[in-house]
Write a structure and sequence with these properties.
Blueprint lengths: L3 H12 L15 E7 L6 H16 L8 E7 L7 H11 L3 E4 L2 H10 L5 E6 L18 E5 L2 H15 L5 E6 L4 H17 L2 E6 L5 H12 L3 E4 L3 H5 L1 H10 L4 E3 L3 H4 L4 E5 L1 H16 L15 E6 H6 L6 H6 L2 E3 L1
Parallel strand pairs: 1-2, 1-3, 3-4, 4-5, 6-7, 6-8, 8-9, 9-10, 11-12
Antiparallel strand pairs: 10-11
Length: 330
């Protein structure tokens, strides 16, 4: 059995092989980085994304066991555990906290007003009150945004392009997450302009998924849009299976769902975000205040299409979509 310690050691030393930065870090100083995450390293997505972060650190000259130590804390999709985990990192007085989602960043900010916090992809950092503005964060939080409210319109448009006759689309969302609430409102506006009737179906826990899909059947929806959420990610195989059983074309934000059999994904490159987060950590460890580091918006978006799933659903992917796809899974 591979232990988490061994796995993290592999990420830091074996999986990524990059030359160390020429600029030496402060002699003898070992920095402590706290990670307040949801998806564990044993999950394929967790391994891929945090592997990108570790790679980014290594490229900047940081090696665990040499000049950094990493304190990993995982909620494993149980958001109620986040306050305890964040308080633990604050008690340890880590030099910086890295958090991947809006709810994680918000909880970390409640736990400490002094320890710098780097976000790897908040859905709406300004609307959620995490920063004053993208250009001038104004507090102890900075990092990268994904701006999910702007993505959902594009996702619905891609679904409509793939299935021109679709008139009813379900959106699976978690009502406890503020960015999801704003994304659903944005999706309603986009759906109206596309001539689509949107059915917003809630799911907070894994046990809610079957009920949500039963409602999709009753509402006779023709496609599904799944918002990004740790619970949905950890149970993506189950969601994909339910979609296949219901013969529903499903759109997600990340490609990991497609590896499990999903149809199409569109969204910012999260691996790129996690790698870029390392540059924020580096600047903060070298003395720059989070308030002086503007929040970055995504610059790279990936469109991924699963042809095998399309064939199983009896769908013919328009050539226009295939030509724009960054990756096509055969």
């Amino acid at each position: 059995m591979i232990t988490r310690r061994v796995f993290v050691g592999a990420l830091a030393g074996g999986i990524v092989a990059a030359p160390l930065a020429a600029e030496a870090q402060q002699a003898g100083k070992v920095y402590r980085i706290g990670i307040l995450a949801n998806v564990p390293l044993t999950d394929s997505q967790g391994a891929r994304l945090w592997g990108a972060f570790i790679q980014g650190l290594r490229e900047l000259g940081y090696v665990e066991g040499k000049n950094i130590t990493i304190e990993w804390r995982f909620s494993e999709g149980k958001y109620e555990r986040l306050p305890e985990l964040a308080a633990d990192l604050a008690r340890l007085k880590v030099d910086v906290i890295v958090a991947p989602a809006t709810q994680n960043v918000a909880v970390a900010k409640q736990a400490t007003g002094t320890i710098p916090i780097v976000m790897t992809g908040s859905g709406d950092p300004v609307g959620s009150g995490l920063v004053v503005s993208l250009a001038r964060p104004g507090g102890n939080v900075t990092g990268l945004a994904v701006l999910s409210t702007e993505i959902v319109g594009k996702q619905l448009g891609l679904l409509k392009e793939m299935i021109p006759k679709v008139s009813r689309v379900a959106i699976l969302w978690n009502p406890t997450l503020q960015p999801h609430r704003r994304a659903v409102e944005a999706a309603k506006i986009a759906a109206h302009s596309l001539g689509i009737q949107l059915h917003a179906l809630e799911a907070q826990r894994p046990d809610d998924l079957e009920r949500a899909f039963a409602a999709m059947t009753r509402e006779r929806v023709g496609a599904l849009l799944v918002l990004r959420d740790a619970v949905f990610l950890l149970h993506s195989r189950r969601i994909v299976g339910l979609a296949a059983k219901s013969r529903l074309p499903a759109m997600s934000e990340g490609k990991d769902e497609l590896d499990n059999g999903g149809l199409m994904a569109y969204g910012p490159s999260l691996s790129d975000n996690f790698r870029r987060a390392a540059t924020y950590v580096d600047k903060i460890l070298k003395g720059t205040k989070p308030a002086d580091l503007p929040v970055e918006q995504p610059t790279k978006f990936d469109l991924v299409i699963n042809l095998k799933t399309a064939k199983a659903l009896g769908l013919t992917i328009p050539q226009s979509l295939l030509l724009r796809a960054d990756e096509v899974i055969q």
